[in-house]
Predict the 3D structure of the following.
Amino acid sequence: MLRKCAQEPLQFYWFRSAVKFWNRMVDSNSNTLRDVMKADIPLGNYGASNYWTRQMKDAFGDLQNGTVYRSDLLQCRKLNISNLRIDLKFRHQAVWREAHSQDPCFCLKKVVVYHNWFALPERPVSDARAPFVLPEYLKRALSKNVMRNVARFRI
């Protein structure tokens, strides 16, 4: 449903908020908060997966600049949110990039048909604005019967 509205998945907004929280902790003037943050980092490095910084570090794993984000996290530096937003969008668009190269008439995957006929066009990863373009199926001359089936498929 989010793709129909040209919105990012919820995980994108959650991850961006978590990074903003990290940056605020780094900038905090509270010594107690900084001590807790610095104590959490080595505990997460020893293999315990229930520490916050460990979960953040693992989430950076498959991003394009994941090593940069991990090193900034381990050294208690601020994370670059604008670069992170671009990397997150690139990771979330991976499934659509795969579907883009396939023909919906010959491929039997719903994601391919949806991407090529129904979905709004992908925004460039560096663009924060939503496009206003009609989905492809609205531009096709389809019979009434086919349009009914298309509407059922979309639901």
